[in-house]
Amino acid sequence: MYRSFGLIEVIGFVTAAACIDAMVKSAFVELHDMKRTGSGLITIIIKGDLASVKEALELGAETAHRHGKVVAMKVIARPYPGLERLLDPEEKGEKE
């Protein structure tokens, strides 16, 4: 069971791809989703245990700084179930 989410927002698709590659290779995390939020901004959402998510985000930010720019980064430990449904709309339909 995944207990934490990590979000990192970067500018540019190449930066996002490099960031995702580094994160999934560095720690036991899974890519949950990637959303284009407009104006070249891409939000990457990963999930995993808290320590792995923190480690992956640190390395992802480091990689993103080399290739482009990090706009924001956030770890959400033990998210409220309502927030989980917002981040995972496909799962919402299965639970209802």
Automatic annotation (TrEMBL):
Gene3D superfamilies: 3.30.70.1710. PROSITE patterns: BMC_2. GO terms for cellular component: bacterial microcompartment. It comes from the Bacteria. Belongs to the bacterial microcompartments protein family. Residues 4-88 form the BMC domain. Signal peptide: none annotated. This is BMC domain-containing protein. Its main location: other. SMART domains: BMC. Keywords: Bacterial microcompartment. It is found in: Bacterial microcompartment.
